[in-house]
Amino acid sequence: MNKTQLKHLEGRLLEERARVMKELGYYDESFSSSLQNADGDLSSYSFHMADQGTDAMEREKQFLFASQEGRYLWHINEALRRLYNQPDKFGRCHQCGVQIDFDRLDALPHARLCIACKEKEEDAKRR
């Protein structure tokens, strides 16, 4: 992989990292706001049990989205570490050692596996 391609992939990874950090900041703000601030009520009690259930469901949904984004951020950071620590090995499949296609890396810059190895991994998970 040449330096221009590596620079491009570094830019893609940094863009994705910034996007995810912004999303996590949004979730942090919504977690830290209390129920009172969120719905504008002056009391801390919902008017109806269904409102409490809806509030709990929304908080749970936001937590799941935030944890998914956190895992994605971990993968992006790992890819940046690989890129900075060993740029000559970046873009090689971790299982078979074959160079991962640039189009795949452009679409998924944190990819660790080539398409063939990823398909094998997914098939094994399905069984």
Describe the structure.
- This protein has 127 residues and is mainly α.
- It has a domain of 88 residues.
- Helix content is 71%, strand content 0%.
- The chain has five helices and no strands.
- Helix 1 runs antiparallel to helix 3.
- The longest helix has 37 residues.
- The two termini are 35 Å apart.
- The mean pLDDT is 84.
Sequence-ordered SSE layout with sheet pairings:
Blueprint: H1 3-32, H2 35-39, H3 49-85, H4 102-107, H5 115-126
Note the main attributes of this structure.
127 residues, mainly alpha, 71% helix, 0% strand, elongated
* Termini Cα gap: 35 Å
Q: How can the largest sheet be summarized? A: none
Structural class: mainly alpha
**pLDDT average, as an integer?**
84
Count the beta strands: 0
Helical run tally: 5
SSE run: HHHHH
Spatial shape:
elongated
Helix content: over 70%
Rg to the nearest angstrom? 21 Å
Strand content: under 5%
Low-confidence stretches: none
Short description:
With 127 residues, this protein is an all-alpha fold. It is 71% helix and 0% strand. The protein has a domain at 3-90.
